[in-house]
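Contributing new records

If you add data, match the layout below exactly. Sequence lines come first and carry their own label; structure lines follow with theirs. Keep one chain per record. Anything else will be rejected by the validation script.
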Amino acid sequence: MFVQPLAPVGGSLAWSAIMAALPLLVLFVLLGVFKMKAWLASIITLLVSVILAMAVWGLPAETTLAAGSQGLFFGIAQIMWILLAAVWLYNLSVRAGWDQVLRQLLGGITTDLRVVAIIVAFCFGALLEALAGFGTPVAITAAMLVAAGMKPLKAAVVCMVANTAPVAFGAVGAPIITLATAVQSSFNQFFATAAPVSTDALASALGAMAGRLTLPMAILVPLFLVFLVDGWRGLKNTWGIALVSGIVFGVTQLVTSSWISFSLASVMAAVVSIIVLVVILRFYQPGNPVKAEPFKDGAQSLANRDHDRSRSAVGAARLWGALAPYAIIIVLFVITQLPPIRAWMGAIFGKLIHWPGLQSGSFPVDVSGAVIPQPSATTSLCGIVSQSQIDSGAALTSCTLGTVNLYSVLGTGTILFIGGLITAAVYRLKWSVAFGELWSTLKSLRFTIITIAAVLAIAYLLNASGMTLSLGTGLAASGGIFIVISPILGWLGVAITGSDTSANALFGGMQVTAANGIWPGSGQHAILVAAANTTGGVMGKMISPQSLSVASAAAGMPNREADIFRSVLGWSVVMVVIFALVVFIEGTLIPGVIPLPG
């Protein structure tokens, strides 16, 4: 059993935190300064992470191999499976010629790429994020924007910036649910005054706070998008539509998360904002529109093939053909998220794997099926525990690393793949043609596969060795200024892992523990900083290496991750700074804004 050291560098938490940040610094310097290809930069960074994990944090060789291999597995089986299925789904529409029809239909609503960016990247992307998450929105909307006539690099950057406001509520609230689970024990330990607070009650309070924190960012993001597409002229001509869409989205998300259900917050916000925009655009179009730009390569490489059916379709058949892939996946995700269906699928396909070297098997249970807590200092069930667990004597009921649920890993990608099969049938493509496109898509993503697998291995090594814990705890030692550092901690977590859900699992409990140390007994501060972790974290998604790879592949720009990184880094930093100010204002200047679990 490996016990994670908190301050292995000379016993100094500050120096240990600085050393823990070294892999991230190496990766971003290789991408942003040396313009190195992402797959090579990721491999070099993986080697640096292995050396630090073993030589400085003392992670045993066999545990290093176990943690790294689990990260490789997640990178390929989850993230790449989603990306492959999503890009294949889009390429089927290109093969059948319906991408051009979609471009024409969008032109029927508006020919202005600034407004198309809001509708596709912000509103429709939010709907995909709400239903699927895990890279799906960027993978699909980037390709759609290219199909609409936007240049690939600009399309990738627009989608990355747009995929922020809805992420905290993505995958039907998965980040909020994970956050509530991660902080429940700490919250009850420090702040429960009577009966323990349930996970559901805590999730509702955190979801409501997240909706209030994201309101200003939801209003700003559409303005940022039109600026990305057309600079200051774009803001001057389209600020009204951008502002309306942001306000409608943000207010709907706030109302839904506070008084209906946080799980539906982004779904409702996306649908309502799309309806409002379509109605407005029937009566008003911005001046000096930005027309479609000529495309050169990438996802459009098949666009000049002969497509008799797509060219001859009219009326409802034309509309259905263009929207079929996206309608199919939305219906599939809605069906599979229905509680009875989701429970049935989880029971049938939710096979657990206990990763060798990290978890030796299931925890023992009593006659009622409840897990029997095991002493953290003596249990052999977990390959890794933290020093804080040893010091506190807290009993273990699960391992942080080591359990793999195959349904959770493979579910989203498999649903997208099934959507691709249905799309191929709807488009009447021969199966040889459809699977030929799948093979071509796989070949085009070969370097992206290396990048994402390496990045996930890095993330798991940082987590397993304790480097992530050292970095987070170092930031949490900042005192009262922690109220503005808490979202930056979430930002770093998402930049490392590429997932808001994972960042919540990593840093959620630490945020609540830090809040108790700085503001003893204040449950409001605990809710605030925990919610800031998940909502601030989304600003780091656009600089996460795995997100960069997804955007690069989806926009048809293999090995261009460094270009995208340089384009979005400034936006990511500016947005997290603005958001830190939002957290400070709502947490200190607006009384009654922070809910408590009831």
